[in-house]
Amino acid sequence: MMCLKLKCNSLLQKINKELTDNVPLVKPEKYLFSRPKNISIGTTNISGNSLNKIIIYLRSDVGGEHGTETGGCACCKHWRLGTAGIKLDIPNMYINQYLYAVKLHGLQPVVSLYNEGNILNTNEVPIDELIYIIKHMSKNNVKKLIIESRPEFIDQNKLTKIKAVSGNMTIEIGIGLESVNDFVRNELFLKNMKKSEYESAVKIINENNMKSLTYVILKPAFLNEVQAIKEAIETIKYVFNAGSHAVSLEPIGVEPYTVTNLLYEDCKYIPPKLWSVLEVLKQTYQLGEIRIGACQVSPRPTTLPSNCDKCTNKVLEKFDEWNCTYDISVLNELYCSNCYDTYIDDVNKLDSFIDEKSIEKDILDFINHYNTVSMEKVTNS
Length: 381
Ligand SMILES: [Zn+2]
What we know:
It contains 14 helices and eight strands. The chain is of the alpha/beta class.
């Protein structure tokens, strides 16, 4: 008999992969690929100082290779959106996109460079182009560069090449471990990542005197609010013990073409409350540098993590302040007479134990429902 867990994972992954086919692709027109997909300017905190930061989202032609093979994780299709879905073979495509951003905005002391995939996967971004870009930043007084990659693409050969051109610039490499719990990370969030791979990657980053950043999710689909809080706290403790220099806490929002969105439309998922983000932070901030990610999108759809209409903006502003100061006193006084007490009552009724058998049943119910609805659509068309 097939193991229930294996069956759940492969069926959920199958649905997630099918959703990829609905993601609209951009036309393979050269002008689109001569500039980044997006550029954003903000501030960040480095060693107690607030510094300007530019985020450059490179536009990929092929998209994230891992996502293409597996459907990616359960909560976003960033790795596919805005891509052409095919290799374009435009010479120096990423260098030209980077230089376009620099010409438009100049460089800032802190640069985040993303390709919506794995920047250290040479099938996505040629290593020579990445090295050119890093060398250019280093020569132009960038103090810190943040990139991200799955652990399997982080190896000594690439880190040696990066180190050779980065001078005094700090290199921070982000890894989406998401959760310490194998069931949550791989069965619910569809991450397909081993903890041992993560640990080896953090070790090699640290041995090369680079900084490791770990993305930790808050409230993937199928977990309730208190299971999610407990899970994020345990994950943060684990990643600091594993040697990660910093954490980016990512409260999950609802994005199109995802399993999370299907559940949301079926009233089976709501994003975490900002109070839960605060709870995780209050219980872990002493352990190391924790940034709050994901909430600061503007304009803010209702499907992002939020509280009530009266306090959401105020709490988000305080989260921004936290990210620029890491001063817990900016968060201590947060309270809302409209929603906080109800939130506490609600979470007190929930069980924090992650019962895998019960969750697997929820997953199978969801899969059966999805298949029935899909069948009806086919019959009616
Ligand atoms: Zn409120």
